[in-house]
Amino acid sequence: EAATGLDGGLVRYDASLEQRLTQRATIAADLRRALTAGEFHLLYQPIVELPGGRMLGVESLVRWRQPDGRVVSPADFIPVAEDTGLIVELGAWILDTACAQTAAWRRAYGPDALRSVAVNVSARQLLDPALPEVVAAALARHGVPAAQLTIEITETAVFTGGRALATVHALSRLGVSIALDDFGTGHSSLGLLRTCPVDIIKVDKSFVDGLGGSPQQEAIAIALTGIADTMGLRTVAEGVETAEQARRLYELGYRQAQGFHFARPMPPAEIDAMLQQAQDRAAA
Ligand code: C2E
Ligand code: MG
Ligand code: MG
Ligand code: MG
């Protein structure tokens, strides 16, 4: 049964919480086996130019396909992988796989076909002092220039400890781009822009959702593009689902976006098809 919480909202502490805890324990036990068994794969979601929608780069997003065919969302297993520490190993596999895929795209469509490939890195990975070496090794192994890789971090992750910030600086020195993901949803987004070597701000979907509404709802999206411009940072608007949002973003000065309106996360072969089309168009 659900009970009414202090705020009047529903707090579920019953069977569903128990189920969730059981699910979490099951996931923890399964993760290591899953990594060895090759049950993870990466999807890639295009990041596009506004207003035309031309693909500039992609973000890699991990998926877990269990033996029964069920695909588990990273929102369900990344936190567990963080708790158990397996994220360090899984994260290294993700970096290597994304770099291998980037190298394959470079070979097939030329070094400039994709400006960047982004990889998400979680808080626990940033606490690992070896992360910059892991990134550098993945780039070197596949012959991918650092400039083509973007590492996406969250402000919360950077605040987990002093070492996390030092790691971000070390990553930045490698020449990879640093993107602050879900920007504006953490506690100290703006302050972080002064201490953290940031190249790209990914404006969170919650601010994109408010576009076309009241000036109050649009205020943050407007302010963020102004700050980014002043600081010489690039912005990517996340979670763009409608043509109206895309149009409004362009009007406000946004030049890069990502979201279901343009493309969903897709298997690498579908990105291949898009790159092939772009190449055919350029040759025509
Ligand atoms: P994120 O990095 O902010 O990734 C964007 C998420 O929003 C993705 O969910 C993507 O599928 C979803 N999305 C993209 N466009 C839209 C849209 O228009 N509407 C809506 N409603 N959603 C959209 P996904 O793939 O489920 O990933 C969720 C989160 O899990 C990611 O958020 C990221 O924090 C984490 N994650 C995913 N892959 C990795 C990974 O390889 N490593 C780590 N450490 N974390 C990852
Ligand atoms: Mg991301
Ligand atoms: Mg994001
Ligand atoms: Mg997000």
UniProtKB/TrEMBL annotation:
Signal peptide: none annotated. Residues 24-279 form the EAL domain. Keywords: Membrane, Transmembrane, Transmembrane helix. This is Diguanylate cyclase (GGDEF)-like protein. It comes from Actinoplanes palleronii. The chain holds residues 463 to 746 of 746 of the full protein.
